[in-house]
Amino acid sequence: MIKLEMVKLDLIIKNKNKVFNLAIIFLLLYIALRIYSYGNNQQNRLLEQKDKELKKNKVIENIASLENVMGGYKKSLVKQDLSSFMNTISDIAKSSSIEIFSIKPLNEEVYEDYAKFSFAITAKAPNYHSFAGFISKVEHYKDVYFVDEVTMAPSKTGSFGDSGGNMGLDVSLKISNIFYL
């Protein structure tokens, strides 16, 4: 038995440096693994932050392009005087065979960034097609106009009467113009 213990003790003494070296290797592997994990986590966080910043940059670019578009609208949406509006609507009406009886300015509605100025118009149209053409020309005019309300009824007077019995349409509408403040 003593011989067996001596052999074990002798074996331990011979290999004590190897055991110690093996323990150091395992310790260093553990430390290296921890350093690698930390670096990998840092890299992942940086990639996530980079993605967030790229998304923010895209949003900022979109906002900048929208501001450019809004600047263009601000240049085109300028306040017009009453006579300019009336001349424009009258010219469009003449080209569409619409007879305007009155143009009445309504109250100006002021909002945070813009104001809306409306006009009540009463007119007579020979038929639905010419009235629809008038509305289309108004809404597609280079200055921005909106047709907010339309009321139509068969005409009681024969101003546009023809041999087919077409009496025309009595129309009233509200046209608005907006402009930036």
Summary?
The protein has 181 residues and is of the alpha+beta class. Helix content is 56%, strand content 25%.
Distinctive features:
181 residues; alpha+beta; Alpha-Beta Plaits; 2 domains; four-stranded antiparallel sheet; 4 strands; 56% helix
Strand content: 25-35%
Detail the poorly predicted runs. none
What is the makeup of the main sheet? Answer: 4 strands, antiparallel
Count of DSSP H/I helices: 3
CATH topology of the largest domain: Alpha-Beta Plaits
Estimate the helix proportion, in percent: 55-70%
Shape assignment: rod-shaped
CATH first level of the largest domain: Alpha Beta
The CATH architecture category of the largest domain equals: 2-Layer Sandwich
Give the termini separation.
106 Å
Instruction: Report the C-alpha radius of gyration, rounded.
Output: 42 Å
Query: In CATH, what is the homologous superfamily of the largest domain?
Result: Ribosomal protein S6/Translation elongation factor EF1B
Number of domains: 2
Provide the spatial order of strands within the biggest beta sheet.
1-2-4-3
Query: By helix and strand content, what is the structural category?
Result: alpha+beta
Query: How many distinct beta strands?
Result: 4
Average the pLDDT over all residues and give the rounded result: 84
SSE order, as H and E? HHEEHEE
